[in-house]
Amino acid sequence: MSALYVRRGLAERSGAIATAGCWTPRALGGHSRVGSLRHNRRVSAVERFLAAASSRDVDAMAAVMAEDVRLHTPTGSRPIDGRERVRVVFGGFTEVLADVEYKRVLAGDTGDSGSATLASHAIFFSSTVAEEEIDGVILLEVDTREEIRAVTVFVRPLPGLQAFAMAMRGRLAPSGRSAD
Asked: What are residue 155's DSSP bridge partners?
């Protein structure tokens, strides 16, 4: 994927990919989309995911995911595979993250990945967990069937990541599920 530079809702890059763009979800009081992203039919999966995440509707988030979705968490050493397992982890996320604010979405084609053509979408957010402020990015890979195939979550700074890891461990470990 080509590097994109974002400034106040505009994606700028010399020779940018045709479907690259940056937008703030309209459902979250944002601006209209930039570039040809509005013509990209895969964006609806991201919009549905964001609407579900904004309302903390874990079942609706999972409904947008492929059955064999893969999640990479900021605290786990191994990926979590499968829609149901990922739904459980996202349930933990919704319990531990407070004051979540989704700021913007950055999108661009990744091309072919094995047997599927994927589009990458980076959702930037801020939140608090156990009184620690965090900034994060949720990287979604969406296929042509408008299903999320992979999710990677990044969180910073370190004190916020540590608070997030402790809170998630407390939510998932009692139910017999590992946070890793």
From this structure: 136
C-alpha 46/C-alpha 36 separation (Å) is: 15
- What amino acid is encoded at 81 in this protein? D
The values of phi and psi at residue 100, to 5°, are: -70, 130
List the helix and strand counts (H, then E) for the chain: 4, 9
Exposure class string for 71-96: b at 16+ Cβ within 10 A, else e: bebbbbeebbeebebbbbbbbbbbeb
Rounded Cα distance between 108 and 119, Å, is 6
Instruction: Give the confidence band of 112 by pLDDT, cuts at 50, 70, 90.
Output: low
pLDDT surpasses 70 at 22: no
AA letter at 54: S
Instruction: State how beta strands 132-143 and 116-129 pair.
Output: antiparallel
Token pair of 104 as six digits:
């913007």
Q: Which residue has the tokens 């309209």?
A: 26
Residue with tokens 């990919």: 17
pLDDT, average across residues 115-136: 91
- List of domains in the chain: 5-175 (3.10.450.50)
